[in-house]
């Protein structure tokens, strides 16, 4: 079996196993919903350019997790309305086909390595997870 075919087979087998043991298997509508994972990172030392560069390095590595469909690494915009939160260092927003893909991301070795190697840089994270239809009519 060719290496790429074997890898694809193993990924599909892993996904099939997760679906079979997941409580989500009984909720097919949730498997078809787009999953968005949005994290705001707050550095311990927000004025430290080296820490900021290091966290950005880590986020770029994290973006290589194969389950991610789209990722955006952002900084606070210069907008200034009272309802806008601008006190974070980085915004990390990624899109997944469904919640199962996001669960695979949460346990992926790249994600585990990211937390292990970079968590010492932030004082807190705020996470917003949301689901919705893949297309809005």
Automatic annotation (TrEMBL):
Residues 35-130 form the Stress-response A/B barrel domain. PROSITE patterns: S_R_A_B_BARREL, TAT. SUPFAM superfamilies: Dimeric alpha+beta barrel. InterPro entries: Dabb, Dimeric_a/b-barrel, TAT_signal. This is Dabb family protein. It comes from Dyadobacter frigoris.
